[in-house]
User: What shape does this take?
Amino acid sequence: MKSTKILASAWDSMAQRKLRTSLTTLSVVIGITAIIGLASLGEGFRLEIRDRMQSGFELDNLTVIPGSLFAGLARDRFTDEDIQRISNILGVKLATQVMQVGNVTLYNVNKSANEPVRAFVATAVNFTDFAKVFPDRFVFEDGELPERDRNDTMIIGYRVNHPTENETTTFAFANDTIAVTLELPQSVPPYHRQENYTFTVAGTLQKRGTPGITNFDYWIFIPLQRAREIYYTEESDLIFIKVHNPEESEKIAKQAEELFPPFKVTILVPLTFINQVDRILSIVQIFLMAIASISLLVAGIGIMNIMTVSVMERTREIGILKAIGAKSRTVLAMFLTEAMLIGIVGGLIGVFLGYGLSYGLAYILSGFVQPQHQDTIFQTPETQRMAINPAFSAGWTVIALVFAIIVCIIFALYPARKAAKLNPVEALRYE
Amino acid sequence: MTRILEVREVKKSYRMGKVIVPALRGVSFDVDEGELLTIFGPSGSGKSTLLHLMGGLDRPDEGEILVDGSNLLKLSDDKLAKIRLVKIGFVFQFFNLLPRLTALRNMELPLAIAGLPEKETLERAKEMLKLVGLEARMNHKPSELSGGEQQRVAIARALINNPRIVLADEPTGNLDTKTGWEIVQLMKKLNEDKGQTFVVVTHDPHIAEAADRIIHIKDGLIAGIKEAPGRSKQ
Assistant: This one.
């Protein structure tokens, strides 16, 4: 029998039992809708997270911190020689150090109303190098980066400069003179705990915020050279490495780590972190789809049930077909074709409904995941709204369709074989 | 005269629960081309079983059945289906048309199974319906046809592949006497005009008498073979 004829015959026989056929198809539709809906929503969610993390972390920046989580975070410090050795690694564009000064109090000498502000993270850096490592973050609201590192300038982060809740007040502008109260250790002259130093504001930074590790909005920067004079030390607390190619960052981190004794440093590689999160989200996505697949299996069992009943009802018909010369294979093909048609039709409808479902779910979820408080430290204008856009891949669609068809055929196999194996004489006698 | 079918010492028994019931206990005869043969006997004599075996719907326990020289016992299920498709036509007591198909589509079925293109199958089906006088009813479903009409469609379906032999199992058993007789006359006409070979199983002596030769079967054995009088053999 020609396959087109078998197809026509299968379609015809399904059309004879409209309600039964549509209910069976519906179960496949529900299964595929669930799979496609969750898959594309999950994929959209994963891409959104990845996107946000990539914009939050500078992928070409590695952070070297002293100590190790395995062996305890010892307060070892870095020397200029360490930085030089890291700079020499192939693929490193620049390495620059940070000396942490602790938290400080600032007074604006030029202001009559002399309200002090506090900066939680005061650091001493080489302005020129630091701006090269963080070009996206060293964007000035007022003033500019000093051409040469002068010993008496400072740069103020956005939230330090706008300390009130609604960010309307401004602490300082460029060229204002600021008195900074630094806390000095007992070992350092002049041997008492607090001392004031004055700096001229070179510039204030724009709001940046970041979902990443560091948020410069709460930082102030003073020149590294000046800090070394004040604290009588050449050592620093952190190293930032800028690499040429983020893809190489894991390799470079490994090489840098080998420059130090084991467990003496930890290097944070954003790429590793992002890949890890990405992997976890992929697993979650597959898990979601596995759950959705259960509904397709239920649909398969429904098909098996319906087909078994159908074979019984059509026993006589099968007997007639065999008596007039149909092979067992033809009978098998007729029943499997019916199942396949249910899979194709149900699968196609399910794919389209699944797309609809994922948009619907994305719309509802988007309402839930918006930040409730406007003053989170991760807040920047461009990351205020969490937008989940369902992502559809042709690959997943094809896989879902094929899966639907295969499930239908597999579950139809038993009843179809039963039909094909019927003895014609007994089938003709069947009432 | 060509021998179309040979039945050699065929035995067949059925298991009914724990009891084994012998249906055929060693039956031998031949069917020649162009013959109208009836197998006559009371119900339970094994005549329907014999017909099923002759058509390759079932396999004998012992003995040989040769259709056109090929031994059915040695054929695979697929080959047997092929024999049923091209060499044998079946007519049943309960017509056995597919209720969801029209008369035309029912007739077309064997040709479709044979894989002929639809244009050709429909043409042949229409031709055959004309032959049995039912061209006006071709788009009716079996439920819209009378018993006699349904059996005509069934006969036309049996003939559509130009089979070597048509096997009819109580073809008049579900019809009134008058219609039944018309069906017998139709088969007789096809036999005489086209030389179509028929084997008809019946328990009705009146129908049996219409044949060239009557095989009387009783308790699974041939009780007698009777040449019909008044029919000249060439």
In short: The radius of gyration of chain A is 34 Å. Residues 61-244 of chain A form one domain. The longest strand of chain A covers residues 92-108.
